Amino acid sequence: MLDSLVATILSQATSDANSGRAFESLKAAFADWDAVRKAPARKIEAAIRSGGLARNKSRTIKRVLETIHAARGETSLEHLRRAPTERIKAELGALPGVGPKTVACVLMFNLKRPDFPVDTHINRIARRLGWAPPKASAEATYRHLNARVPDPLTYEMHVLLITHGRRTCKAQRPACPYCPVLDACDEGRRRLKRSVRTP
Ligand code: SF4
Fold it and tell me: What digits encode the pLDDT tens for the residues 169-193?
């Protein structure tokens, strides 16, 4: 549970490769999560430097570990592994610096629960496809997608949308003419019409 939570914190605003390197480096530098909790933030920062935003992330990780230890007397979240989803959301969401997307990532990737994480990329694609209102926040899109996407499809759909955002539906200049879901996308059709009108 803690591996998953810390890995998700490290994944913010960087590539999978960079955050993976930072996570491995952190695990190699300390014996366990309790040792990370007791360490000065600058040592944690040095261990995760390859992941970007190391200063902020080291402080978040340390505060999270300290909060867990203060509440439970141990640096562990294993008591939540079989807990009801709503309790996991409440406990993880109350930790400092842990937002709904991080909680949803732990639920889906680590615990295989049907909870759909929404980051800026998924939010962008869901709004373009009309699965969420055009100006929906990530939190609003989270509610729309979790109501719409059938539970058994949560994980695969998430991974597909991430891949689609990287390859085709990019933030700037989405490749609508080559998009496999163009027929189902109002935004894509609008963009194509505009490009035909604008020589
Ligand atoms: Fe994105 Fe364009 Fe495809 Fe719509 S048609 S999903 S905007 S790439």
Answer: 999 999 999 999 999 998 999 999 8
pTM of the model: 0.86
Ligand 1 closest atom vs CA 180: 3
* 64, 98 Cβ separation under 8 angstroms: yes
Both structure tokens of 86 = 């709503």
Q: CA-based angle 58:110:141, to the nearest 5? A: 85
Query: Does 188 contact ligand 1 (Cβ within 6 A)?
Result: yes
User: Residue 178's domain spans which residues?
Assistant: 120-197
- Annotated active-site residue 101? The verdict is yes
- Give the pLDDT of residue 145: 95
174 CB under 6 A from ligand 1?
yes
Tell me: do 104 and 20 sit in the same domain.
Answer: yes
CATH of the domain at 30: 1.10.340.30
Q: Which two tokens stand for residue 103?
A: 């909680």
